[in-house]
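Discussion board: Methods & Data

I've been asked by a reviewer to show the raw model output for two of the constructs in my manuscript, not just the figures. I'm not sure how much to include, so I'm pasting the format here to get opinions. Each protein appears as its amino acid sequence followed by a line of discrete structure tokens. Is this the kind of thing reviewers expect to see in a supplement, or should I convert it first? Here is construct A:
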Amino acid sequence: MASNQKYFDTWDRFQTQRYYVNRFVKRVAREIPQGSTLLDAGAGECVYKKYFDHCKYFSTDYAVGDSDWDYSHIDFVCKLSEIPVPDENFDYILCTQALEHVYNPDEVLAELNRVLKKGGKLFLSAPFIHQEHQLPHDYYRYTKSGLRHLLEKNNFEIEQLEHGGSHLLVSARFLKHMPALLFKNKYLFFLKWPSLVLSNLLYRVIVLIDRDENNRHDPDAPTFNYMVTARKK
């Protein structure tokens, strides 16, 4: 099993930054017809491969992310802007949490469009609020308008754009860590642990009561990730 498989498998709503991406991927896997060709772009350790065993699954990654990851199962080790396959080679492309790690997203989306068959779909997720990670290869965060601009510029038509976490969840996530930051002073340190217990309890309550429809009532609120379904024109 890959070193981080458990994190990428989580159905735990308390893992808020990954939960919505995982749910998106599993739904995509159910929608793709049997025997379809799928490219997992920025696949890392190919942790999502098992959900696509009914497809002809291929993977590509530049293999410069986490130093302890196992990239030995990658089919095409290359930049996402230089994938060594013919035009219109895949029925579908999955690209999750990878666009922030490329310095040339415009070129990458143009390349994904090139290798995708006409009418094929790109399933993409990208972060809006997320800590820096896989440094130094962490370059961007994306708004809805930014994703729409890049995709439409590169010959994609957006069919669906979803939030991955509501304003309430984002606020709760910051609240969860607040006591550790507030009570560093030696005279207030005794407040740290009871405050952490209370803030984590409140966080868990908010996660349990929050529902996806909150985003529909507040579509411009901050969120952890965006998930996009786009069709090649």
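Construct B, same format:
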Amino acid sequence: MEDRLMTVKDLAAYLKLNERTVLKLAADGPLPAVKVGNQWRFRRAMIDAWLDDQMLGISQRYVERPPAAGDRRLLLDLASCFAPEHIIPSLAARTKTTVVEELVARAHQLGLVRDKTWFVGALIERENVMPSATGNGVAFLHTLHRNAVDIVRPFMVLGRSPEGVDFDALDDRPTHLLFLLGLKYNELHLPWLTKLSHMLARAGAVQALLGAPDASAIYDTLTAAERSLQAAAPAAAQ
């Protein structure tokens, strides 16, 4: 199906949902849509980007995906893809494009991505379809398509902007914490993204990262939050 405007009926068939569910998702806000008169219309590219975020766990989940067999052996924690040298404590860039370039330059310098030009272009393409800033001062930058060749291994790079950058956030506020996600595979096997989203949603989490004095302290703050989340999970399950 080409990238064209879709009706509720078109989208219901594409998502394999009933039309009433599509209407509810559009009316409630999570589904990217525009109302023309009294009819909802949807862009295929924006729907695909929204689904991508749903599957990665970096936005509120509305469409569930059953776990694939063997996912447990693929589980990763933050330490497997993130280290203090992956952090830029004070970004020099002040615009969306230059922030992307600065983050990618760090990833390339660390040997995490082979083709810097491809990665910058793929990230900007994703931003043009749907901004990655989720609000609350946070953005999760990633590409629409995985690239097993140019991404050396799954990774995360974090850039912090104390002044904030206009990243077209959902709440129209500046973005301060920009997580660049190097996603190598198509399979959903990176639960650290889900954990990260949950960690940053906790009260005071963003402020703690903004207040950390340097890269080492930022890293320690994130890993402490991860341990706290892991410790809380068994208690919640009881």
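Answer (T.O., handling editor elsewhere):
This is acceptable in a supplement if you add a one-line summary per construct. For B, something like: The chain has eight helices and eight strands.
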